[in-house]
Amino acid sequence: MALTKFKIGDLINIIDERNSYGIKEFQGINIHKEFMPTAANTEGLNETNYKVVRKNRFVFSGMQTGRDECIRISMYTKEEPIIVSPAYTTFEITASNVVSPMYFFLTFLSKEKDRLGAFLSDGSIRSNLDWEVFCDIDVELPPLAIQKKYVDIYKAMVENQQTYECGLEDLKKSFEVLIDKYKHSADKKNIGSVLNEIDCRNVDGYIKDVQGINITKQFMPSVANTFDVDLSKYKLVKDGQFAFSGMQTGRDECIRIALYRGEEPIIISPAYTVLEVQDKNVLAEYIMMWFSRKETDRLGWFYSDASIRTNLDMDRFYEIKIPVPDTKIQQSIVNIYNAYNKRKEINEKLKAQIKEICPILIKGSIEEAKRAVEV
Fold first, then answer.
1. What is the pTM of this model?
2. Res 315 pLDDT > 80
3. How far from 164 is each of 102, 168, 251, 343, 351, CA to CA, in Å?
4. Which of 155, 232, 262, 265 is the most buried (most CB within 10 A)?
């Protein structure tokens, strides 16, 4: 049996199971085709209206497919059911004699499929991929035995990545336990006594690398239009210095601060504050680690409550206290924290590589089916 072409609508069936079980796990799907906790406020919502998603069930949203250039679809693989918004479409594979649910999902993990979805959504006023159009998409399927072979390869890669991720979580827990220990036992110091403001300008206009900081506390190229802007007024940020912005801390529930690490200095908007460690008993990396905690972000959000624009004013920022153990202990904590971040970065790369391999697996399965016919 060679490749067989099917319409998606011939392989699936809508399942509209509502939450009459008291399930509280609200989730949604993102543009990476992953499930994630919903960002919507679920307080006071009637959870019985929400749709139940069980193992091997799919969730689809055609909204803004054209805008995002992404078919927003995901397959749920865990044992415990979750619930999703009634706005989503939930469905299952009914033609199990011709397609494996996981293989069906793998066919959507490619930019080619996303581009097709974006093209097909072009006829919608809101650039949505309508359900009827989605169901009319053609898929070519090799025999189930070949599908299983390539699904097993995918599952093996995912299993290795998840094993690595479990080790990552263990490292995170050990780090958090260590932090909590010294949070209660070490002496505390005000940020105002630890950091000092530095105001060096790009007076000769030599440096052109304009950057800003985002809510993940990382430097990034500025999104502002700097054409014909006098860069001599911009502030210099050198290796080991911080950039801070108190604007909208309350709105974002985030203290926007970042530690710069780089041989060549950069420049930032005059609206930012540049800070430098003035206490030799405190490590810059330790300070940055402390501001990377959600606990500190919540404190910043609380302190910004007195501001009309929910800004974290400098005097309030300086009042924030952090526990300061011995520098050797600080360094040990920083080492674990850096190791965690490095492994986290590797884990994200592993997940990205798996997604990049999926189109290759689909192509390989199709070519193998073609070769089998030729033989």
1. 0.76
2. yes
3. 22, 6, 35, 9, 11
4. 265
Report the alpha-carbon distance of residue 188 to residue 209 in Å, rounded: 36
Q: Which two tokens stand for residue 212?
A: 């800003």
Q: Virtual CA dihedral for 163, 169, 172, 176, nearest 10 degrees?
A: -150
Q: Provide Rg for the chain, Cα atoms.
A: 26
Residue ranges of domains in the chain, CATH in brackets: 4-141 (3.90.220.20), 187-324 (3.90.220.20)
334-352 core/surface letters (b: 16 or more CB in 10 A; e: else): bebbeebeebeeebeebbe
CA dist list (Å): 346 to 36, 45, 224, 339? 20, 38, 31, 11
Name the token pair of 37: 């906790």
CB 247 within 8 A of CB 257: no
Tell me the pLDDT tens digit for each residue of 34-60.
999 987 777 778 899 999 999 999 999
CA–CA dist 327, 280 (Å, integer): 9
